[in-house]
């Protein structure tokens, strides 16, 4: 399995492996969007202010649901897809890409 990006990361100077298989690219993009959303929800949960226990429960349930119901199946599917012709013996692996710099999602 090859940890490959969907595009060259802006914060890494050295060239990184890039996925070129179309389906692997689509699955990796969806995985990365789910990963980023999960991180935003967890940040919001751990930096909460005056939320009710019910609201905190909703945030934690959403994060766990994304991890088990979205990231796990997409990660498994991604690992079974080819990375592309540049990597003939490698399957795609999640690179856990961030498309936007993290910030705090304020209440």
Structure overview:
- The chain is mostly helical.
- The protein has one domain.
- The chain is built from 2 helices and 2 strands.
- It has a two-stranded parallel ribbon with strand order 1-2.
- Helix 1 (22-46) packs antiparallel against helix 2.
Task: Note the topology.
Layout: E1 2-3, H1 22-46, H2 53-79, E2 92-93
Parallel strand pairs: 1-2
Helix pairs in contact: 1-2
The level of helicity is 40-55%
Strand content: under 5%
Q: Provide the gyration radius in Å.
A: 16 Å
The geometry reads as elongated
Please work out how many helical segments DSSP would assign.
Answer: 2
Please provide a brief summary of the model.
The protein has helices at residues 22-46, 53-79, and strands spanning 2-3, 92-93. By secondary structure, the chain is mostly helical. The protein has a two-stranded parallel ribbon with strand order 1-2.
Which descriptors would you attach to this protein?
107 residues; mainly alpha; two-stranded parallel ribbon
